[in-house]
Amino acid sequence: MPISRQTDPEPLNPFILSPTRRQWVPPGPLQPEWLPMTPIEKMAQTDYDALIVGSGAGGSAVLWRLSEQWAASGKRIGIIESGPLLLPTHGRNLPTMDQERFVRFFDNPLHTEYIGKQWPEYPGAKIIRALGGRTLQWNLVSPRLSPVQFKSWPISYREMVRYYLLAEEMMSVTTDYAKGSSIQQTLLKRLRAQGLADAQALPLSADLQASQFGIIHSNVFTSSINFFAAALNIRPFDLAVHVRANQVLIDKGRAAGVKVMTPDRKSYTIAAKTVILSAGTWETPRLLLHSGIPGKAIGHYLVNHPKLIAIARGSRDQFGEVSGVASLMVPHPENSRILVTGIGPDPEQYYWYAYEEKPYLNELRFRFYCQGTMEPQFDNHVYLVPGTEDEYGVPRLQVKFTYGNEDRVTIGKQFKFLEKAVASMGLELESAPRLLPPGEDNHECGTCRMGVDPDTSATDAFGRIHGISGLFVADNSVVRLSGPAHPTLTTVALAIRTADYISGQAQS
Q: What value does the mean pLDDT take over residues 446-465?
């Protein structure tokens, strides 16, 4: 359908919450902004070469890469976010945050929607509606999927290497967070002595470099805001927050733009030659389904990581004087589908940087996770529920999800391996490991997974929706979660690859 223009002689600034936090009002003329904003009225009068929906890991990576690839061009890039300007950095970078304040801040229903409360089969699900999304609070763990785990993908590990390298460079991925720690070295030595030879330091997205040469290294922990900053220093782009996309527009088989709505229920149309959906594993298929985009696999093949958690402890006197922290991962030596990660001591207080006194501990506590790999099932899916439309006119999602027989076998092996790993470190479990409810791993993927066959995948190898030119997906939903590695690094690498494809197509 063709795009129609809307005009407003007196455009408003982006919306903010009123002091009552219940009514949306436009800000005054002196409302401060730590990132340049564009009024949605102006965006509705602009023809964009690329419009990005969502500002999490995938959306921000696309924004940065397109800004870099189109730096010398006159092409227009726009990005919209349904939430507010919440934080200018990862929450743990703020000197006022301790663990209690950090948890309480992100537990606020004003920006965290616990959608799993309505999903009996997936109760742990949540959405953070804010610029940066869940990257404002993620745990920064950034391993790659292994070469063998790409066998089910439409692209090879070899092709992904250059994009993993770009992602790791942009995200400052390092294994040095616990470097020099006697706790780390002691635990790794014990693991390796017990036959777990692949035990290693955990890759974290953390900038540990001191500021030098006039370059600021103030944000230790990475969030999407890092990508926004990098893009902003390359070229201008348009950004609007508090803008909810509620329909993708298609004209003659190709993307034409997006219909959006503001909190005061005003509707606008934003025209774009290319639309990149980066709203996440829940909201991206919801928008596609509501827009009537064809595709048998859209919303299907939902996967996560079956995840165990356990707390272990050990006496302080078994470690050296320069204790430090532990940050490690232990791949299963015979099963590439299982991975243990561990942090400590006292992950609630000691592991993360904080502006607070840390008293001497006679006993150290560590938190361990064990992640497994699911078998993708078509029947694990999200779907729209007619008659449950939200305030933006989009039906709410419901989820069908269960672990299959093979998954249950994997989970049983996870329990055994986690217990073995903890024992190999000379630590004692406080209680038996427990399986987290689905959703609490925050690793949901696959609802728009990439592939070759349109019957079993939503996008092609570049994240483009099958059969629709100019419509792409760049978020966790495209990831085929074929291994136990955390998905964020892979999502960012794929998003950079998608941006390269888009910029290449525009130049051809």
A: 98
